[in-house]
Amino acid sequence: MKKILYTALLVPALLVASCSPDFIERPSLSGTTTGNYYNNAEEVRAATSTLYSGLPWRNFESRAQDAIGDVMSGNMFSYTDIEFSEFTYSSASERVGAAWGAFYKIIGYANVLINTFEEKKTQGGNAAYLDPAIAECNFIRGTIYFYIARTWGDAPIITDPGAVALSGNFNIPRYFQKDVLRFALEDLQKAEAGLPESDVPGRLTKYSAKGMMAKLYLYNKDYANAKAKAQEVIQSGKYSLVSDYYGMFTKASMNNNAESLFSIQHQFSQDPWGTGNLKNPDRGPSNLNTSEASAWEMYVPSLDMLSEYEFGDLRRRWSVMEHGWSKPEWKPQRANAPKYNEFMANGYVYDTTRATDEGGAQNATRANIAKYFAGPGKAYGGEPVLGQNSGNNVVLLRYADILLIYAEATLADAASTSDASALAAFNLVRNRAGLPAKTSITLADVMHERRVEFAFEGDYWYDIQRQGFAKAKAIIEKQNRGSVEGGPKYITTFTESKMYLPIPAGEIVQDPELNKPAVPYYN
């Protein structure tokens, strides 16, 4: 924590990278002070734009998001992160430390910018552009604390890293989860009040805040407020489901589309490292590893996830590569591989019967993840890819989520509902997937729909967790977490202590207070 706090204090120097030709580009802030900078809207927006970029989010979205959200929830199979599949992770786990570090660094950046902009206002800075920028920071900080509360439960809350560093007292306690969630909600409420009705594509608006508030209210089982906020987003008419579900995750041309309320903004680059989307190699099948694109399939769909799809659900093909899946425009070729080249010459076909040296695909579950895999590279008929990097944004909140939040919040604690508005929202999501509408829905229906709709987007663990330990245990123990060759595998040792991740061991060494019982943040 001490290192993260000091890093946050260097935020002006850390925001110097030129990120892209669009809104996340910013000039150097070397020597920046509130007196000589942040004197116009362009300078202020340049500063906040960095909070959207892949750089501060990298250590979360690259692998930690997959390990926590999808491997732990049973959606993904992984030999590398088997500790998350078997719930044997510890406070020394790499992904635990990576997520924690990324989250608190982003919070640190947001804190410094909030405090800097508030100071600039006292010096006569124009509130017309400073207040919306503060609201952007409130959204980012509130969203991160929401993630922290769901991931670790009780956790530290920090709002002024400068004051902490100057005091020399780094013994920061954990606060109760309910207080962390309350703090997150208050930040999102400030964001809702301060953000504009609309902005350029990719920038946050007050509807982004309303949507994230709806998600937080649902997590808290505050169904009335969850429904109200989701309804405000729906009735705004500003968002819609896109017809090209697959392209939403694989085509950079679809970044910041009509379905996106909040996305991490990536660019097609590997300099500096983390500006590009790094999910491509971890999901791509090894038979699509080319001179342009890395693909080593660290994460693949679990057998249990594959069994979840209903017959006829188009999201299966849009999300998963299985035997027969094809992309005629992809035509990868390799040096000194005549059988491979012959097989791929007429277009890519996912084939689990051929030998791997002849272009076959035979991983542990005989399937690969299509979401966020941009392909073998532009020279071979795919999207532009540069080694491990693509230019696809990572979507953290989209309109389909708002629709399903509305349906679930309307259902609330009832056994089922036939409410017309809830069904309309729910069936919009199903209809896009080519499935028939339902005339009544239960919580099981909603959870199924959420699982297949947001598969491999890092969300399903939180859907399991928010149902409580008894239900979570029942869900997990029914899942087949095995492989084709190894056979079925079931978890029988899931305990309540595994509902939240442990605080990283290195953080406790620096701050022993983190190893003590949580305390109230609010009086």
From TrEMBL:
PROSITE patterns: PROKAR_LIPOPROTEIN
InterPro entries: SusD-like_N, SusD_RagB_dom, TPR-like_helical_dom_sf
Domain SusD-like N-terminal intervals: 71-218
Cellular component annotations (GO), alphabetically ordered: cell outer membrane
Signal peptide: 1-24
Record's keyword terms, sorted: Cell outer membrane, Membrane, Signal
Highest taxon of the lineage: Bacteria
Keyword hit for Signal: yes
Domain named RagB/SusD: residues: 305-516
Any matching Pfam family: SusD_RagB
Keyword Membrane attributed: yes
Protein name: RagB/SusD family nutrient uptake outer membrane protein
